[in-house]
Every structure is written in C-alpha cells, then in structure tokens.
Amino acid sequence: MQVKVVMIGGSGFIGKHTAKFMSGNDLCVYDLVPPEFESEYVQGNVLDEKRLEKCVDGSDAVIFLASLISVPRSFDTVAEYMNVNACGAASLVEAIKNASKRPKRVILSSSAAVYGEGAYVCDVHGKVYPLPRSQDQLNKGSWEPRCPYCGREVKPLPQAENDELKPLSPYALTKQVQEWLITAMAPRLGYSAVVLRYFNVYGPGQRPDSPYSGVITRFISQAMQGRRLQVFEDGLQTRDYIYADDVGAANARALELEESATINVGTGIRTTVLQLAKLIAGRHGVDVAVGGYRQGDIRHSVASVEVMRTRLGWQPRTALEDGIAATESWMNESAHLKSESTP
Ligand code: UD1
C-alpha cells in the first residue's frame, strides 16, 4: 500500500540510504538542504514548529532523522546538542499535536549510546551495570569496566532493549530525551512509536573528513592518504558495525509495524577496533598505532538482535568486509569527482 512518508532530516547520510527502500511510497524530505535523491522536498529547520506542522499534516508516517551525532563533539557543544536534538524532537511532537490530520506512525532514529556502558556479568554478583570508567582509571590504562560492588573485571553482555539506560555523553542523553518524548506522547497523540536504536552505522555518504566522523570512514580516509591509523585505548574495545543500507532497510521495515516498539538495529557481531584497523590498514599497506583515549567513550557495545528478528522479522545482510569495500569504492569515486571538478 502506498503511504505518505515524511523524512525529517532526510537529506543526510541515513536518509539517503533509507530513500532507496521507499519506492512505492510517497516520500517528502524536510531538511535545511535538498536531498541528493528524487523526492518532494520542503526546506525547513527542525525547530520551526509551524513549518514542520504543515509538512507532517496529512502524512501517514514520519521518520525522524534530524540529529547531531558525535559523542566527543557533544561534550564541547552541550547546548547545541540539547537544542537541536532534544528540542528538535519536542518540536516534532508539537507539530504533530497541532496537525489537523496526524500521522499514524513515528519512527525515531535513536542510538545504542543510550545504554551507556551497558550490562556486564560479574563472577560473584551476576548481572551488573559498571560505573563509567574514571579519568584516573583511564590514565592508568586500565581499560576494562569493573564490577560496581567488588571491583573485579566483568564480561560484557549484548545490549538488550529492556536494559537500564545509562547515557554517558550529552549526545546519548539527547537520544534518551528524544526516545522519551516520542514514546510518551504516542498514546496521547494517537500514533505508534517505533524507536530504532542504531549501533555503529557506516557506509557510502558518511562524512570522512572530520575528527568526529565514524571510525570506519575516518580510517578508510586516512589509509587512502597513506597515513597511519590511530587506534585508541588498547584497541580491544568492541563495537557492532552495521552497514547503512541495512539501516535503511530496517527503517522501511519499521513502517509496517502497527504497534509501538523499541528495537536494536545492529548485527549482533562484536568487532574490536584493532581488528577493524588491521583490516583497513591491510588493504592499503599502512601502519596502525595504538594509544590515547577519548573522553566519554564506552568500552564495549554489541546488539542483542532477538527483538529485531522477532518484531521486525528482519536481519542485516552486509558483511563488514563487503561494506568496507563498498565504502572505499564510494570514497574513491567521490575523490575522483572532486579532483575532476577542481580547476
Ligand atoms: C557511534 C556514532 C554515534 C552512535 C553510536 C552508536 C558516529 C560519529 N558516532 O559512536 O552517533 O550513536 O556509534 O553506538 O558515527 N576510535 C579510534 N580511533 C579513531 C576514532 C575512533 O580508535 O580515530 C575508536 C573510538 O575510541 C571508539 C570506536 O573507535 O572506541 C568507535 O568510535 P566512533 O566511530 O566515533 O563511534 P562511537 O563513539 O561508538
């Protein structure tokens, strides 16, 4: 069935990959800049409630993608993160409240960052939620989280949707606020809320050239310039890397859900940053260095994928090696296009 879908913040990286799965739907992008793909487009700021209201009025579903995304940068620009991310979601809620014909579904792009360090197992105390690693601990190079009761080293568990949320950065907190606003207002405003907690998304179109870029595009870009890859901590921290097309497919799949739900979008596969760096360095013949750390980083993150399988009836398809190769091709092509357009 054709439905009218509004993608707020749809001109960015995730929007581009979601649009590929929207054929058959009537798509409208609301963003500050126009999308690179074919779509109806309304130019507007996410904080402009009136303009947003006009855009969502009469739509069937909204996919909310308008967010600032960097964990480290959020420590330097706290007010900006609160303003764009938290107030942006509040602005959407106001726009829906005031619309004469409200959408039936809101899909929120949330983040695994809401879990913070997540749950671990202590040999003595069972399931525990370690405290954030202290500056002192990090300065000593003691990287693994510890049991909050006995101080023993603990083993990470996959992050599950019903785990306690313990955001550790301004960015993560804004994602929790977005989740709360969109979910809590759903019954009042008559839409179902589908919260998708993305794990570490990468792929073509992700900005590679900033210190705040995701680690995969950052490493590929450095390797392509023949530079050494800098791995923080001891490189044994883990993440769950999911390819952007898979995230786009999950967004499209979520349009079919009638009931509210909170769902992890990850692969369930742990990869250490060192494995990742060696994989990329090996393709380009560059070195890997290990050391230093970033404030606010968590140590381990991998998705529990049960809810995704059962509620979305879906799982990601792209292997890390294939996703990296596709991202590299895109970066090669865009470098080529840039050099062609340079006089
Ligand atoms: C990423 C996303 C965030 C998302 C979260 C979900 C980006 C920019 N951030 O945060 O939006 O909500 O996943 O899990 O996409 N690292 C290095 N060397 C570098 C850069 C990073 O070793 O040069 C390490 C970091 O210390 C970290 C890991 O790589 O351990 C991943 O870092 P990053 O790609 O910035 O992502 P997250 O902080 O996990």
Outline the structure in words.
The chain contains twelve helices and 16 strands. The chain has 343 residues and is of the alpha/beta class. It folds into two domains: 4-119 and 157-337, NAD(P)-binding Rossmann-like Domain (Rossmann fold, 3-Layer(aba) Sandwich); 120-156, no CATH class. The chain has a seven-stranded parallel beta sheet, sandwiched between helices. A three-stranded antiparallel beta sheet has the order 7-6-8, with no helix packed on it. Strands 10-13 form a two-stranded parallel sheet. The termini are far apart. It binds uridine-diphosphate-N-acetylglucosamine. Uridine-diphosphate-N-acetylglucosamine (UD1) binds next to helix 8 and strand 11.
Layout of secondary structure:
Blueprint: E1 4-8, H1 13-19, E2 26-31, E3 40-43, H2 49-56, E4 61-64, H3 71-76, H4 78-98, E5 105-111, E6 120-122, E7 126-128, H5 135-139, E8 155-156, H6 170-184, H7 186-189, E9 192-198, E10 200-202, H8 215-224, E11 229-231, E12 238-239, E13 241-243, H9 244-254, E14 261-265, E15 271-272, H10 273-284, E16 288-290, H11 306-312, H12 320-341
Parallel strand pairs: 1-2, 1-4, 2-3, 4-5, 5-9, 9-14, 10-13, 11-16
Antiparallel strand pairs: 6-7, 6-8, 12-15
This protein binds uridine-diphosphate-N-acetylglucosamine.
